[in-house]
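Give me the fold.
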Amino acid sequence: MARLKAKRSGEDQEYIHLKIKKDDFEAFCSAAGLFRGSFVQTLKKSEEDLSEGRFTQRKSLEEIIDRK
C-alpha cells in the first residue's frame, strides 16, 4: 500500500483537520474506498432518494450506508 502524505492542520472538539496535496487526493480517495463500486452505488441511491423527496437532509454519509 502506498504511503499517503497528509498534514494535520488543526483539531477542535468535533473535527480533525487534514491538508492533502491535490496530487495526492486521488490516492487518498482510493485508500479510503471512495472509488469502490459499492460506495458509488450507495451515493447514487442516496441522490435518487433525495431527488424523489424521501430525504431532505443528510448530516453524515453514515446515514446512507446499509448496516448488515
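The chain has a mean pLDDT of 77.
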